[in-house]
Design a protein that fits this description.
Low-confidence stretches: none
CATH class of the largest domain: Mainly Beta
Structural class: alpha+beta
Shape: globular
Number of domains: 2
Oligomer: single chain
Number of strands: 10
Strand content: 15-25%
Helix content: 40-55%
Length: 283
Amino acid sequence: MVAISLDYAAPDCALKDFVSVFYEFRADVPVFEDLERADLAQFRFKLSPGPGEYRFADGHIQAAPDIQIMGPTTGMTHVRVEGPVHVFGAGLLPAGWAALLGIEASTMLNRVLDATELFGKGLYQVADQFRAAETLEQRVAIGNRLADDLARNARELPFWFTRTVDAWLSDTLSPEVIDLVKATGLSRRQVERYCKRFYGAPPKLLARKYRALRAAVALAKGETDVDKLLEQGFYDQSHFIREIKQFTGITPKRFAEDLPTLARLTLKRGDLAGQVGPLVSDT
C-alpha cells in the first residue's frame, strides 16, 4: 500500500458550476506535514481522529475542524496533521461558494471554519457515511448528493459573473483587468467588488495567482521551460521566481527537479482535463 495518496474525481455535470473536483487523501504516517499551494475554497471532512493545524500565508494559525470550510487562499498554507490521515473533500468554485455560503469570500480569505456551524450537526451523519463507504466512487456519490442537497437552498447563483471571470482567467496566460471590465459590461469598481465577493480577491491578484499556478504546473510537467514562461507576462527571472514562490511556496527549480509530496500529487488533477474546467485541470 502506498503510504501517501491523493485521488481525484469529477463531480456530476449538474454540479460543474459549484464543485471543482472531489478528492480523497490518505497518509499512513505518524505525522503528515507539507505545504498546500494557493487554491480555491475547500469543503473537507477529516475522517481520521488525529488533530490538525493550518498556518496560512499571512501567518494566522488555526486548528483544523473535523468538518471544515476553508476560504480561498492567496499563498502557501502549512499543514500538519497527526496520522494516519484520511480526508475526503471538494473544491468549491466561486459560484459554489456564493450558493452554499452566501457570505463575502474575502472575509474568509486564508481562514477555516467549522462547517457544522453553518450547515448543522447533520454533517456528522454524512461523515459517518463517508467512513462507511468502501471506495472512492461511493464517497463521490455521497459527495454529489450532499452538494446537490445544499445547492437546492442556494443563497445566490452568480453564474453570469463567475463564468465570465473563469473564461477571462483561462483564455490568456496573463489576463488584463480592462478586458474583464469590457466582458462584463460593469464598471471597474463593480468588477473589483464582485471578485472579492465570490473569489475572495480583486481581479489583479486573481490574474497573478492563476498565471503563477499555470506556469508552475507546466514547469512541473516538463511542458515548457523558464525562458518560455518569462515571455508570458513576467517582467524578468526574479519576478518569475517571486510569483511562483508566493503562490506555491516552492521555487521554480524545485518544481522542475524535486517536488514536495502534495505538489506532486496535485498534478493528478490534470488527468481530469475535459471533465472539469481548464481553470481546475491546468492549475
